[in-house]
Amino acid sequence: MTAFARRARASAGRLHPELSLVSYTLLGHLEESGGCRATDLAAHYALDKSTVSRQVSALEGAGLIERLADQRDQRVQVLHLTPAGTEILAQVTASRRVAFRERLAGWPEEDLRRFAGYLLRYNSAGPGPGPGPMSMPDPAPDPGPGAGPGVTAHPDASPPSD
Q1: Could you count the other beta carbons within 10 Å of the beta carbon of residue 4?
Q2: Considering the chain, what percentage of its residues have pLDDT values greater than 90?
Q3: Whole-number Å distance between alpha carbons of 158 and 23
Q4: Distance (Å, rounded) from C-alpha 105 to C-alpha 100?
């Protein structure tokens, strides 16, 4: 697991120098949720509010997210991806998807099935953040060549860093 986490952190920087793994994860959550408050991000990922605040400030400063007034309560600010944030998230996701497929290209079908089953089992066990950018078992559409029949590569798997 340590090697997996290290690869994930390193890959985010290689795919986009200004986008850390945490930033990528937060952007993915904002995309999936359609926007949310910073306190919702902190609660979802069990992070300290100050940690999320620093990340949000950096993403906002980079022009990747923006704060908009909540339509139901004008006192509340909701974080949303900007067009630039949507574009960069799509680019990084596509790069990660390609790298994941390449990493699994030579695996026999039975190994891919077992691996997918283990990922499902791992991600469904125990507490932690719900489905989001770092969860891998959700099948990605159109796995393309090299992913193997019956198994789809998820865009958030770590690319090779060896």
Answers
A1: 10
A2: 49
A3: 15
A4: 9
Take residue 64 and report the two structure tokens written for it. 């990747």
Distance between CA atoms of residues 129 and 115, nearest Å: 21
Q: Which residue has the tokens 């090779």?
A: 160
Q: What is the pTM of this model?
A: 0.64
How many angstroms separate the first and last alpha carbons of the chain? 15
Q: What is the mean pLDDT of each run of 10 residues along the chain (162 residues)?
A: 58 62 90 95 92 93 94 91 94 88 94 95 73 40 38 40 40
Report the pLDDT value the prediction gives residue 162, as an integer from 0 to 100.
39
Angle at 161 between CA 140 and CA 30, to 5 degrees: 45
> Which positions ≥6 away from 113 have C-beta within 8 Å?
150, 151
Tell me how many degrees the CA angle 125-128-130 measures, rounded to the nearest 5. Answer: 90
How far are the Cα atoms of 46, 78, 117, 126 from residue 93, in angstroms, in the given order? 23, 23, 22, 26
CA distances (Å), origin 24, targets 15, 109, 112, 119, 145: 10, 30, 26, 20, 26
Which DSSP string corresponds to 97-156? HHHHHHHHTTS-HHHHHHHHHHHHHHHHSSSS--SSTT---SPPS---TTS-TT----TT
Question: Tokens 């998230």 sit at which residue?
Answer: 89
